[in-house]
Design a protein that fits this description.
single chain; about 300 residues; alpha/beta; Rossmann fold; 7-stranded parallel beta sheet; about 45% helix; about 15% strand; elongated; binds nicotinamide-adenine-dinucleotide
């Protein structure tokens, strides 16, 4: 019961990572405000979870809606101890040479501004809480492996998630004086609805698509299984707990080793790019030598 007596706000709680994290916090004693635009899914998560889970309708791309969420959680319980800024979607898929201004803005509002204002409107309700005295007041933001570099997601999403990491550091510095810690998690490929939603996969094909995604992500990383929402929830719970009272302004990669490096770093059957290059060089030299010999005869 690490979170007994604490008030926790989780955005994007109707599905995937947010659902698993809201459920875990409530299971460990917190009063959890589970916010989402998906009312049906959010209410189902609250009904199925163990403990005190309360659904709140909130659209994180609307700052007034974020403020209303934080205000209502605080007015019902007296304040907020932990916020998990999690809600987002894949955003615009266009490359940088094709993206339109409104697509860019929509993605940034959803991925980055939502987190900034999740912090902005929660902090007035976090200041002076008992949890600020013992390291238990905490904000956790969701970034992504996509923040590391290209290749994991569309460009606008990747840039927004990199912004979330920088925001996390700046906010940690701003809020330390109030005893509020700010950290991030960077999920790798986690088996949730985000891919099928972003790719607009029809309902009847979703479970097949999710199985394919889980299998291919298992093959792409050293830990040979698909990542699960619970894997991220456990990292969030650690960052929010008193055990992390000396941890702020940082992020935890939870990616099954996806970002350790190219495949040959962990798969002994794979050839390294350098080995391939050297082999090619040898072949070129051998061909040149053979050509010279032929010319001399
Ligand atoms: N699944 C992954 O592999 C992965 C990898 C890196 C980062 N992430 C991040 O993890 C977070 C959670 O994603 P997930 O994988 O659980 O996806 P998901 O689609 O399963 O859940 C996202 C939830 O956010 C909600 N949501 C979307 N837009 C919203 C809005 N405007 N306001 C309020 N709620 C909204 C959705 O209704 C949904 O319930 C996101 O920030 C995502 O970018 C996920």
């Amino acid at each position: 019961m690490r979170f007994s007596g604490k008030t926790v706000v989780v955005t994007g709680a109707a599905s995937g990572i947010g659902a698993a994290t809201a459920t875990l916090f409530a299971h460990e004693g917190a009063v959890v405000f589970a916010a989402d635009i998906n009312e049906e899914g959010g209410k189902m998560v609250c009904d199925q979870g163990q403990g005190d889970l309360r659904f709140v309708h909130c659209d994180v791309s609307d700052t007034a809606s974020i403020k209303a969420l934080m205000d209502s959680a605080a007015s019902e319980t007296g304040g907020i101890d932990t916020v998990f800024n999690n809600a987002a979607a894949g955003g615009a898929r266009a490359p940088i040479d094709e993206i339109e201004p409104d697509e860019w803005d929509m993605t940034m509002d959803l991925v980055l501004r939502s987190v900034a204002f999740g912090i902005r409107y929660a902090v007035p309700h976090m200041k002076g809480r008992p949890s600020t005295q013992n390291g238990g007041a905490s904000i956790v933001n969701v970034s992504s492996v996509a923040a590391i570099g290209p290749g994991y997601s569309p460009t606008a999403f990747a840039v927004g998630k990199a912004g979330v990491l920088h925001l996390t550091k700046c906010a940690a510095a701003d809020l330390a004086q109030y005893g509020i810690r700010v950290n991030a998690v960077q999920p790798g490929f986690i088996n949730t609805n985000i891919f099928t939603t972003s790719l607009e996969i029809p309902e009847e094909m979703k479970s097949m698509a999710k199985a394919v995604i889980a299998q291919s992500s298992a093959n792409a990383q050293p830990v040979a299984r698909g990542g699960q929402p619970k894997d991220i929830a456990e990292a969030v719970a650690y960052l929010a707990s008193d055990a992390a009272s000396f941890v702020t302004g940082t992020s935890i990669l939870v990616d099954g080793g996806l970002t350790v490096g190219p495949r040959h770093c962990w798969d002994e059957e794979a050839e390294s790019p350098m080995a391939a290059l050297l082999a090619m060089e040898e072949q070129v030299k051998a061909a040149a030598a053979a050509g010279a010999e032929a010319a001399n005869t």
